[in-house]
């Protein structure tokens, strides 16, 4: 994924040898049925600090609309909309309101890298000096360190934690997240309402839902019928999805019908045969320091801090992981620190930062689906900034509110 690729780019600049192993085959990796976007705000600086200059200059290409120009207000805040009335509740501040296309991000970060595809990690060996990765096809690779940047369902994390410390809790949320296209007239109507990048509808006043609508990819700005939009609707209280795709589409449209424009029309215009794949958010509620085997095995990105997307912090923390790990490895190579000391320090910082954000994001996940609670939530009060950059006590702001249940432990064209 993006985290491992960014780490590799930093290592390449430092002259450190490495291998990249991707479990998916090239076709699946490059061409997904769904295209989605991720919030890119304070983490952007870590991209610029880690990529080589010739790649960093193309950072704008990771956006769904690469040449997009925004006003200062739109750049540094995003409107949160009353899903029932269409009124702007608040403009939530952020370092940047821009988003990154998952596909475009991977494409940029993989430039000039040799990636070994179709390699599923199944085991490892540690002889006290070197570590060996063992793959399902019999391939083995020995080196000084294994870096697990292998998603929230990390295999590497199972190597460095006891099973009871590695339990991920499934949030009680039904998530319908997919990409789709519209007719030319429909796409023009939908694009840019409220904000050039996204439309966010937290906590519908009459139902426990959250909705987001954004452009996911514009390959040809002159052909709106080819623009790809990301549709997102989550329902709090269950992750027991309707068994058939037809039922999931009907459920999506049922809840979407209660929204204001333009989300209501965007919902109505979704094709009846649209594929909606059930998603579940798995969260590491009780993060525990992993055994890094004397600095020989470590984690980064979602593998190090599986969290929900409720504050848009996952990608940004992953980018900081990549930057911090590159600093640690450079210090090792330069002889400034022993491998154990450098990776111990890296692991401790990642765990502390990730644990705090997991906690805050879990609380925000509940708040995002309930109108009265959202008004007192962390995002409403403090914006989309990195947790530790606020002078306020995020843990206090994120604390359990009255009525809240257990969260993580638990002119319209036709």
TrEMBL record:
Mention one GO molecular function: monooxygenase activity
Q: Using the UniProt annotation, give all residue ranges assigned to the region (Disordered).
A: 395-414
Write down the Pfam families for this protein, in alphabetical order. FAD_binding_3
Enumerate the UniProt keywords alphabetically: FAD, Flavoprotein, Monooxygenase, Oxidoreductase
Highest taxon in the source lineage:
Eukaryota
Task: Indicate the segments forming the FAD-binding domain, all copies.
Answer: 110-357
Mind telling me which InterPro entries this protein's record contains? Answer: FAD-bd, FAD/NAD-bd_sf
Could you tell me which SUPFAM superfamilies the record lists for this protein? FAD/NAD(P)-binding domain
Names of required cofactors: FAD
The regions listed as transmembrane in this protein's record are none
Q: Which PANTHER family match?
A: FAD-BINDING DOMAIN-CONTAINING PROTEIN, MONOOXYGENASE, FAD-BINDING
| Name this polypeptide is given | FAD/NAD(P)-binding domain-containing protein
């Amino acid at each position: 994924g993006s985290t491992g690729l960014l780490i590799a780019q930093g290592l390449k600049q430092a002259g450190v040898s490495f291998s990249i192993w991707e479990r998916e085959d090239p076709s699946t990796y490059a061409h997904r049925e769904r295209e989605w976007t991720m919030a890119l705000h304070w983490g952007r600086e870590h991209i610029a600090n880690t990529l080589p200059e010739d790649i960093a200059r193309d950072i704008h290409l990771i956006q769904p609309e690469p040449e997009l120009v925004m006003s200062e207000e739109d750049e540094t805040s995003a409107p949160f909309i009353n899903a029932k009335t269409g009124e702007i509740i608040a403009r939530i501040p952020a370092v940047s309101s821009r988003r990154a296309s998952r596909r475009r991000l991977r494409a940029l970060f993989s430039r000039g890298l040799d990636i070994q595809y179709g390699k599923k990690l199944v085991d490892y060996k540690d002889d006290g000096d070197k570590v060996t990765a063992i793959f399902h096809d019999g391939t083995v690779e020995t080196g000084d360190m294994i870096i697990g940047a292998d998603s929230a369902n990390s295999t590497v994390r199972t190597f460095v934690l006891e099973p009871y410390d590695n339990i991920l809790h499934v949030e009680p949320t039904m998530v319908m997240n997919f990409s789709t296209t519209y007719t030319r007239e429909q796409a023009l109507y939908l694009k840019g309402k409220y904000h050039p990048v996204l439309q966010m509808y937290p906590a519908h006043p009459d139902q426990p839902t959250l909705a987001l609508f954004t452009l996911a990819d514009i390959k040809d700005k002159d052909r709106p019928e080819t623009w790809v939009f990301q549709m997102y609707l989550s329902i709090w209280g269950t992750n027991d999805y309707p068994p058939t795709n037809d039922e999931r589409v009907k459920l999506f449209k049922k809840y979407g019908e209660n929204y204001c424009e333009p989300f209501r029309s965007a919902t109505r215009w979704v094709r009846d045969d649209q594929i909606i794949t059930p998603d579940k958010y798995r969260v590491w509620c009780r993060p525990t320091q992993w055994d890094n085997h004397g600095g020989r095995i470590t984690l980064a990105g979602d593998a190090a801090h599986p969290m929900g997307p409720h504050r848009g912090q996952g990608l940004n923390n992953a980018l900081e992981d990549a930057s911090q790990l590159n600093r640690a490895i450079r210090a090792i190579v330069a002889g400034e620190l022993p491998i154990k000391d450098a990776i111990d320090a890296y692991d401790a910082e990642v765990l502390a930062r990730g644990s705090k954000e997991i906690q805050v994001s879990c609380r925000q996940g509940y708040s995002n689906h309930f109108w009265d609670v959202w008004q007192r939530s962390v995002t409403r009060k403090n914006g989309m900034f990195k947790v530790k950059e606020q002078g306020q006590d995020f843990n206090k702001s994120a604390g359990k509110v009255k009525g809240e249940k257990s969260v993580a432990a638990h002119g319209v064209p036709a």
